[in-house]
Amino acid sequence: MKKTIKDYNLNGKKVIIRCDFNVPIENGIIKDETRLKKSLRTIRYARKNNAKVILMSHLGRINKEEDKQKYTLKPVAERLSKLLRKKVTFIDQTRGEKLEKAINNMKDKDVILIENTRFEDLDGKKESSNDKMLGKYWASLGDIFINDAFGTIHRAHASNLGIASNLPNGLGFLVENEIKKLTKLIDKPKKPYTIILGGSKVEDKIGVISNLITKADYLLIGGGMAFTFLKAAGFNIGSSLCEREKLSYCKDLLNKYEEKIVLPIDIITAKEINENAKTTERFLGEIEEDEIGLDIGPKTTEVFKQYLDDCKTIFWNGPLGYFELKPFQNGTKTILDIITKTKAYTVVGGGDTIRAATDFNYQDKISHISTGGGASLAFLEEKPLPALDIIDEK
Ligand code: AMP
After folding, report:
1. For residue 386, is it within any domain?
2. Which residue positions in the chain have pLDDT lower than 50?
3. Closest ligand 1 atom to 202 CA
4. What is the per-residue pLDDT for 201?
5. By CB atoms within 10 Å of each CB, which of 40, 272, 342, 360 scores lowest?
6. Are 168 and 189 members of one domain?
7. pTM value?
8. What CATH number does the domain containing 298 carry?
9. Are residues 171 and 197 in the same domain?
């Protein structure tokens, strides 16, 4: 058993909590605060036990100087202050004198949020490649390290693995709960068990299929993910997303798991991606060269329903269409409706899938909303999870 925050006396200690505040922010406005809300329990516990609370998180990806403005954590500090009903002091640095001074001046129960850890990526990917000196430096700012960021548990970063290697450490309540809830999907899940995969990070996710498919009875594929499979099956996909290097991999999977893999039979297409796009319902074989497949069609949702209705376990990662825009919402919305009407144990994971569940108001009807997308997939694949594996055993 891994140590948790409860295994430490936090009184007067500087406790670094690595959170996952990687929330969608548009023009400074947080579009979905599920991850913030799920972090509150650990932060409140630390404050109640008189800790000085130092919060860290990444947000988005930082590849160039201009990304910094878009991905500052300042709006998160403001929102967290309201949720905690306690001022969260935002320090616009990831290292340096200002940060060190602010930490040295902290009183018990104070909360500080430091700037996006990935700002360090501009300097030779120091955060994402777990630069040893950076992990050591961040660890020097605190006495105890608590990892409560499930979304990056499968990554070896300076702000998780790096700090944990240099301080007494444990898990926060959020990560503890994720492990408990996701273990139910590995440890003799109730059958039939169906996995739904969608989204647009095809390159990241397509590789997990060969492993996940061995654990479930059916795999329903929608979203951007579906088109590489449809192309591999010989259908014209027009200008839809496609991972060409994976075509033969998909073909092999389709041959091997013909009974298990369920693909869309109709598609909502458009020639442009915007709120006013004119949509067309196409059966496979009808998609034209200049059309983009942006949602599953109504016949597909009917087919998916047949697989989902008497399922006992359902895991879903990745929206089934470009749900941020009204013309392409139906597939994701209808499938949310269907799974929440079943008696199954339902787990939905990943930032955009969570956002869809909250936007369409299904969040309270799902058994477990996992804060991790790639992380929950890696967990289900039973892969090594560097930022979890490093945590001390009791
Ligand atoms: P992911 O992070 O892989 O779960 O991808 C989420 C994103 O996939 C969302 O922003 C969706 O709008 C997008 N998406 C879903 N279906 C499609 C599609 N058919 N084509 C392009 N993007 C899509």
Report:
1. no
2. none
3. 3
4. 84
5. 272
6. no
7. 0.92
8. 3.40.50.1260
9. no
